[in-house]
Amino acid sequence: MPSSGETESNDKKLSNFLCFAVYSANLAFGRAYKPILDKLNLTYTQYIAMVALSEKDDQTVGALGEKLFLESNTLTPMLKKLETLGYIQRKRDPADERQVRLSLTPAGRDLVAADPGAPLVEATGLGEDFPVVQKSVVRLRNNLLKTTQDNAAKR
User: Fold this and answer.
1) Residues 107 and 124 reside in one and the same domain
2) Residue range of the domain that includes 49
3) What are phi and psi of 131, to 5 degrees?
4) How many beta carbons lie within 10 A of that of residue 112, not counting itself?
5) Chain-centre distance of CA 98, in angstroms?
6) What pLDDT does 60 receive?
7) Does a structural domain hold residue 8?
8) 92 located within any domain
9) Cα–Cα distance list, 72 to 49, 61, 62, 66, 123 (Å)
């Protein structure tokens, strides 16, 4: 039977940290997506921005940033690149010139509809557990965000 000191050291192993498992899975996803998206001249962030735009047309930069957890100063250069590639259209909101509205072009819709990341669902090896794991990770993220927001409100 391990002593309490041994148990504590095993608990502190990097492989036991959920945060590291999620972080390293994110890195693995990035590596798996890279060759697919390189062929399309896209980064992962550009691709997920397009997927988010395919869900709801005519979004503001701010709304897209909230959905992707990105600040507008990070989004703006990425969106300019997507516009240059012909995948999105950016236009000033006629009701509020300070707002920029985003829409996918037909080429952008076609790219998202082609679902270039589809092979990665199988590559996860999760099979029927895929939707369960995806929902669990979303719940984990939402719980952490709520705790962070609650703690910030207490300060």
Assistant:
1) no
2) 41-115
3) -65, -30
4) 19
5) 26
6) 93
7) no
8) yes
9) 12, 7, 7, 9, 32
